[in-house]
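Run log, item B.
One chain of 379 residues. Sequence copied directly from the ordering sheet:
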Amino acid sequence: MKKTIALVNGRIYTITKGIIEQGQVLIKDGKIVLVGQKLLLPDNAEVIDVEGAIISPGLIDAHTHMGIEEEIHPEGEDTNEMTEPVTAELRAIDGINPRDIGYQDALKAGVTTVMVTMGSANVIGGLTCVMKTSGRDLKDMVLKEEAGLKMAFGENPKRVYSEQKKAPTTRMATMALARQAFYDAKHYESKKAEEGLDLANEHVLKALKKEIPVRLHAHRADDILSALRLRDEFDLEMVIEHGTDGHLIVPELAEAKVPVAVGPSLSNRAKVEMENVTFATAGILANAGVKVALITDHPCTPIAYLPICAGLAIKHGMSEEDAWKAVTINPAEIMHIDDRLGSIEAGKDADLVVWQGEPFSIMGAPKIVIVNGGIVYNA
C-alpha cells in the first residue's frame, strides 16, 4: 500500500489547465486524487511543503533506444537486426535491459516515461514499446508492449544493405519494400485461416487497422514527404520521427496534421541528412499548429538532457508553453497514454517532479521525483 502524499505550497504546472499558484496535489494509491488550492487534506497524508517550487508532470521522451542500445558496447547493443530489411516480427521489449543505467539518469532528470524503439537500419524494424523509467522489472515498468510499428526511410537502410549487396540500395527500393509489406499483410489477412499465423504480417496488420501508429524515421524533406504518401496510400496513423528538415516543409506538415517527434537536435551533423539540424525546427512547427514532441533519441543525446533540449528550443523561438507540452501532454497523446499521463489532473498516474530552480535552465534540476505515487528520487 503506497503512502498518501500531499505536495503543498507549490507552483503547479498542470499543462492542460494552466498554472496554480500556492497549489496542492493529493496523491493516494498511486494516483492524483485532488489538485487545487486550500484542499481538505486527510489526517494520514504525509505533507511535503515544496516552498514555492514548480511541480510538473513527469517528463516524457517519445523516442529513445533506452535499454536496447546500452552505453556499454558491444554487450548491450541490441538495436538493429541487420539480417533482413523487413523484420516486422521483432518487438523492442524483447531486447530491453531494464537495469540499463540510462533509467537512473532519466529519473534524476525528471523523465518518468519513454518510448523505446529498435534502430533505423531496417525499412520495417518491428514493434516499439512504452514504459516508465522506474520499477522492479519490465512487467512493472511497461505501459504498452506493442506501441507502434517502427519504420525507416533515408540513408540508414540504404547504407546497411548496400554493404550486403541487397535491396534497398536506393530510396526507390525502400519505398517498394515498405509498400509490399503492407500489401502482403492485406493478402495474409484474407488467407490467415488456411495459411496459419505469421508474426511479421500480424504486426503490420496492427498498423493497417490503426491499432498502433507507424513511427517513421525520416530526416530529409523528401523522405518525410514519401512517408506522407505511404500514410495516405494505406490510411495509416503516423508519427514522423526526427523531422530534421521539418521547418523546410511547414505547409505540407501542417496540412497533413501529422505529429512530429523532433530531435536529436543537441547533436552534430553526423550524417548528410542532418545538414539542416536546428533547435528552431520545433518552434516553427508548433507555431504552425503541428503537434510536436521533443526527443533525445537516447543515447544519441543522453536522456538527462531532455530538459536542456526544451530550454534550447525556447531560446530558438519556441514558446515556453509549447515546450512544456512537447515533453508532457503531446508525447502522451502521440503514444495514446494521455488518459494516464502528460498533465496534472485528478485520476491520472501520480508521476510528478518537484524542481529546484527553472526546469529548462542549465541550473534547474529535479528535487523530488514521484512515479506511481512513490518517491523514487530525492536530491
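Observations after the first pass:
- The first strand starts at residue 5 and ends at 13.
- DSSP finds eleven helices and 16 strands in the chain.
Flagged for discussion on Thursday.
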